[in-house]
């Protein structure tokens, strides 16, 4: 039997990956502030989850200065997108099996 | 780890919720930037009117054309025009202008003030309608700015032109800024 992706399965990380794989964001990524709004996480919590996803190779974070302010942009990697697709397929499979 | 149907459904619902919010956020962001561009255009148009009223008609059309091209380019850059090209945005503008020209050129007996208020409220009506599909922010901007512009028409008196320039120009810029951050 297939298993859920333990990294993505966590609710905040699931929301991060869902946001980063939405068409339009999959190529340009999302900045930290927008991700915070979308996930409802605190700064520290979101940072920790992004670190976790980065270590797994699912996302990459880029830091830059825009208008003299630091901005962190997070993008899903090809590995992350594939893992998220597999996780969604697994969830749909559970629903289909139960029906 | 095993998941049951309910847990899987909850995760899929969470994903759908995030995707919907990301899409709305992208629409708000690009719409906000476009509104800010049109706010600047309003200042340019009313500035030309103040400095050279005799060239107002052609300059208004020229500035509008620049605004339309910029809008189409911004939509394309943001990836909203990939499927249909900029054609859909241009078609929307053509429909609004066509409707407007029928009223201002053929049917209505509009003076300069009425003309100015009509065009603003026509496009803001479009914003309000868009709110039914794309989020309440559009409706708030459409109805709010329409109310402000109608108030200028009735109450600004001799200060109508500077007042409409400030309300329309600053209104679009501020609303666009708010929308971009929403």
Using the CA coordinates, give the radius of gyration of chain B.
20 Å
Run of helices and strands of chain B: HHHHHH
Number of helical runs of chain B? 6
The Rg value of chain A, from CA coordinates, equals 14 Å
Share of β-strand residues of chain B: under 5%
Give the uncertain stretches of chain A in residue-range form: none
Unreliable sequence segments of chain B? none
How would you characterize the overall build of this protein?
- The complex is a heterodimer of chains A (99) and B (182).
- Chain A has six helices and three strands; from the N terminus they run αααβααββα.
- Chain A has 99 residues and is an alpha+beta fold.
- In chain A, strands 1-3-2 form a three-stranded antiparallel beta sheet.
- In chain A, strand 2 and strand 3 form a beta hairpin.
- The mean pLDDT of chain A is 89.
- Helix content of chain B is 85%, strand content 0%.
- Chain B is mainly α.
- Chain B has six helices and no strands.
- In chain B, helix 2 packs antiparallel against helix 3.
- The two termini of chain B are 38 Å apart.
- At the A-B interface, helix 2, helix 4 and helix 6 of A face helix 1 of B.
What labels describe this entry?
heterodimer; A: 99 residues; alpha+beta; 3-stranded antiparallel β-sheet; 3 strands; 61% helix; 18% strand; elongated; B: 182 residues; mainly alpha; 6 helices
Describe this structure in a few short sentences.
With 99 residues, chain A is α+β, with helices and mostly antiparallel strands. Chain A has 6 helices and 3 strands, in the order αααβααββα. The model of chain B has no long low-confidence stretch (mean pLDDT 86).
SSE diagram, text form:
The complex is a heterodimer of chains A (99) and B (182).
Chain A: H1 6-9, H2 11-20, H3 25-28, E1 30-31, H4 32-39, H5 43-55, E2 59-66, E3 69-76, H6 78-98
Antiparallel strand pairs in A: 1-3, 2-3
Chain B: H1 5-51, H2 56-77, H3 87-107, H4 112-134, H5 136-155, H6 160-181
Helix pairs in contact in B: 1-2, 1-6, 2-3, 4-5, 5-6
